[in-house]
Amino acid sequence: MSAIPSPGPPNRAQEFEALYQHHSREVWSLAYARWMNADTALDITQEAFLRLWREWEKGERILNPRAWLLRVARNLAEDFAKSSFRRNGTHPPQTMNGVQAHEPQPLETLEREETFAHLRKEMEQLAPADREILTLRYALDYTTGEIADIIGKEESAVHMRLSRARQRLANRLRATDVGGLS
Amino acid sequence: MTVAVPPHLDNRAKPPEDEVDHLLRAFYQRELPNPWPMLTPQSSVRNRIVPLQPVARRFPMLRTRLALAACVAFLVAGPLGLASFFSPTSTESAATIQLTADGAKAEKNMLPYQLPLNPREPKIGGIKIPHGREK
Predict the structure, then answer these.
(1) What ipTM was assigned to the predicted interfaces of this complex?
(2) What's the fold here for domain A9-88?
(3) Which of A63, A131, B21, B39 could be stapled to A33 by a disulfide with Cβ–Cβ 3.0 to 4.6 Å?
(4) Interface residues from chain A to B (CB-CB < 8 Å)
(5) Tens of pLDDT along B66-81?
């Protein structure tokens, strides 16, 4: 199987846009699973795609752009962790809390925000690999086969890990009575 | 012939969802950027805000190494320079006069690196020696 050459200038933008539409959410999911922060995940996603663009401009040939993007996103997420550690010690600046209230909200909305905050806190306790599978499953509605293809594992292993992670999360949420689960 | 796929591996069949599944879906739907942002490479390359990796320098430790070399040079050349400044071959260091009552003893008691006084030159007069006697 020959390497797929970088698209020429007339097709480059179209090819890039197509790749972005198809795979940007997957890349975002992996970055989000690492940092549990939507803005950080978006930055990492855009950086990964921009690097792909630069590789094409240099004339580099990338056999599997999707796999390349996912690998770069994982590396960028780890680099982000290291740089944040250097700047701020053990706690990155954007830690695990996306609740921002600027005006009085209805009680139902406040309760839901509190539930999500508890859920986020419990998900932080899970292993990053479990968070990846949960994010791909519940954010993008991917099947276990599709998830296995992304993370490079056997489908049966993904199914087992998904079931265990979900059950572990459910037990913790029920123990703290989060979301009315009992 | 059709092959029966175990239900837990059948991608088409999804297990019934419970409250945890609904909660997780709602959570992620809230986290997903909506609308999903577009990305145009030309404008994004110019307006990138977060450089996640620093630019690699060609000689990353050049300044440090130059400073270290300067310190070593100072440490090596400093003592040599001071030693040459205070060398015994200079005239000022040789003109040491022993003020004693006996000029001969003065010459005898002179340190080895000191040049002896010229006997033809008058001894230094007008110099009071101990006990007030002038020479």
Answers:
(1) 0.81
(2) Rna Polymerase Sigma Factor; Chain: A (1.10.1740)
(3) A131
(4) 13, 16, 20, 24-25, 28, 32, 38, 42-44, 46-47, 49-50, 53-54, 76, 79-80, 83, 98, 112, 115-116, 119-120, 134-135, 138-139, 143-146, 155-156, 159, 166, 169-170, 173, 179-181
(5) 889 999 998 988 888 8
